[in-house]
Amino acid sequence: MRISTHLRAQILASAVLLASTSGAMAYTIDGDIHDWGLNHTGQDSDWTPNSGVSYAVSDQNNNELSGGYVYNFTQLGALGYGDQPYDAEAIYLDFDSTYMYFMVITGRPENVSQYPAGDIAIDFGSNGSWEYGIETRGNNGYAKGDLVAVSNWALGNPYAAAGVTEIQGGTVVSDTGDGNALVYGNKITDIGRYTSDSDDDHYAIEGRVALADFALYAGQSFTIHWTMGCGNDEIHLSGTMPTPPGGGGEVPVPGTGLLLGGTLVGWVIQRRRQIAKPVTDEQDDAQQA
Q: Which of 20, 233, 249, 279 has the most CB atoms around its CB within 10 Å?
């Protein structure tokens, strides 16, 4: 069966629209910093991500400047003390059509018993409410990567000024259990200008949250925040939840693009059937008349 040039163009357009609406995951959740555009070459520019990524950096400060690497990046010297193992260094945020992606870089390794890493905290409205948390280690009955509507947070101890740190209670909103929601990465070296043995351990906490889980907050501003158990240092970043096409109040759930694409493909198939339908003798006589 021959297909007209016009129909071929329709099929191609449908395929392009299907690809654009179904979307592709922007980041692999594996603790690798390179897909964010980061490097580890011992230069200040190592911290600069790909264009379009929101970020904040709290690093490149030696002992003479801050009494150690540890400080609140919005107010120098406002928090505790310590060196690289207590450093909150950078935070990154990006979106695609399906997920919100985030990454925190710290000098704090995952498996420490005293003052361990805190959980990722999210505050819609940036008013101190901290409605949601993302479990980073697997603690207090939550699995690593769980998105929790938090009813009770622990504060940094002894430095409560660092803010919320560990989920103490709440309801699991999303339990992926697939290993793709959050990874606490292995040690990375040579990020930034200070690369001596004593201050060159870095760890990426990388994860994602489905936009559908935050459908009620489409278009709203928020703050994402992280600190460790002691609250010696903290890092935070402001962002805005994407608004779906058309400005509606709900984020399309994963698979919406596939449904639309399926409709288009079905239309193309039906169109092909109409073109290929045999012409009866009566129709042929009518056309020749």
A: 233
